[in-house]
Every structure is written in C-alpha cells, then in structure tokens.
Amino acid sequence: MNNTKAQSNLFFTVIWLVLAVLTIMTFSLGEAGVAGKGVMLTLLAITMIKSQLVANYFMGLRRTKFLWRAIMFGYFAIVGGLITVAYLMGLK
Amino acid sequence: MNEHSNTINQEDLPGDFAIWIFIFAEMLAFGVLFVAYAFTRAQNIELFNASQLTLSRTSGAINTLVLITSSYFVVRGVESIKRGLNQQCAHWLTGAFLLGGVFVGIKMVEFQAKFAADITMSTNNFYMFYLSLTFFHFMHVLMGMVILAVIIMKAKHGGYSAHDYVGVETGASFWHMVDFLWIILFPLVYIIR
Predict the structure, then answer these.
(1) ipTM for this prediction
(2) Angle at which helices B86-116 and B57-82 pack, to 10 degrees?
(3) How confident is the model at residue B4 (pLDDT cuts 50, 70, 90)?
(4) pLDDT of B3 higher than 70
(5) pLDDT at B109 over 50
(6) Which of A75, B48, B52, B121 is least crowded, fewest Cβ atoms below 10 Å from its Cβ?
(7) Domain ranges of chain B
(8) Which CATH homologous superfamily contains domain B15-191?
(9) 40-79 in A: which are within 8 Å (CB) of B?
C-alpha cells in the first residue's frame, strides 16, 4: 500500500519535472531569438506534449473512456493545426 | 446524497460532469481566440514580432513554472484525499492557492508595466490579443483560487473522505484547465515568432 502510494507520488513528480524541463526548453528557444518553420514546429510539438501530459496525468484522463482523451487530443490537434497553417501562411 | 453516489467511477471524467461542460466551453472560447491571434498575426507579422519583443518572456516562463507546480500540488492534494487525508489535502491545495497568488502578482506587475507605457487594447492588434487573452486567463486564475479556497476550508473541517471526494476532483479539474490553457498561451503569445 505504502509502496503503491510512493510510486504514485514519484510518478507525478517525474511528470512535473518533465513539464518544467519542457518549459525551460521553450523559454530558451525564445531567448535565443530563433525563428522559422523548424523552430515553430518544435515549439508546437513541445506544447502538444506538455498539454497532453497535463490532460492525461494531472487531469487524470488516462483512466477515462477513450472519448474524453480523444476530445482533449482533438482539441490540440485542431487548434495547433490551425495555428500551424496561420504561421506557415506568414512565412511565405 | 449518500457517500456511495459521490464515489468516482474510474471510467468517467474526474469530478462533477457539469464542470466538464464548463471546461469544454472555456477551452472552445480560448481556442477561437488562439486561432484568431495566429491568423491576425499572419496579416501583420512585423507588427506582431516587434510588439512581442516588449513582453517579458522571463515573467511568462516563471508564471508557467508557477502554474505547472501549482497543478502538481493539486494532484498531490487529490491523491491525499483519495486516502482520506483531509488535512494533508488542505496543505497541498493551500500550496497551490499560494502559487496562484504568485501568478496573479507577477501578472499584475506585467499589466502595470504595459499600462504605465500607455499601452491599451487600442494600441494595436497584438496588444488587443495580448491583453484580452491574458486578462481573460487572469480572471480564470482568480476564479480557480476562489474554488480552491472553498475546497481548502471544507477539507480543513474534514468535509471529504476516501469515498467522497468529488468536490476536490471538480475543483482540481478546473485548476488543471487553467494550467492547460496557459501552456498553450505562453509559447503562442510570448515565444513563437
């Protein structure tokens, strides 16, 4: 029981650390002042990973029906996809 | 309502289903604003890039770390109440509440700096989106803090149990939504150029 509790807490701590590292990576790319298609896609990929980590593990959707996870992923796919289209339009 | 009816079905969404209707509606509203920002930017790239440089990326990044950490505290609070530990749950949620206060403080400093520079929503399209998106989100943080405060008070009085914690999960879901939306808002408005 205590082992399960400790493992669960360790797991959430690892998720938090991954989110923090990804945030620092995003900030570092911003500070480097780099731009362009590759950087934009990298930043969106990092954002997608972070949003899905929060949805699946912090919100707890990984334990729910596929429908709810699909809605959260679909939300990011649609919003992120449209943001990508808009940014690619701007690069022309 | 008896304890059994408040017990979570693992297949269902955490917390009260009504909060999820609200969460999906809020996500839709923010999603429309995110996409509108991106397409408006595509028509005014130089203006958006120049205006974006006036934002404090450090403040934005610190606030991201603050919200992520507060969400982690909320997760620990939910895990505590699942074991029936009301006081421990209240302690974790109080930590999350205080971090919410840190976010609000940093954001107010940012807003103050913009207003002191005579920047308003009418200044240009970038600031119109920046101020409306961040203020809209700011109001959600405040609402989330009120919800957390109510849950903390109830937990301090032993109001939840290992079989009855729907209220904690409902508030937690709202707080995570606030974090989820900021995770998209931060790179979109502060970083991507």
Answers:
(1) 0.93
(2) 160
(3) very low
(4) no
(5) yes
(6) B121
(7) 15-191
(8) Cytochrome c oxidase, subunit III, four-helix bundle (1.20.120.80)
(9) 40, 43-44, 46-47, 50-51, 54-55, 57-61, 63-65, 68, 71, 75-76, 78-79
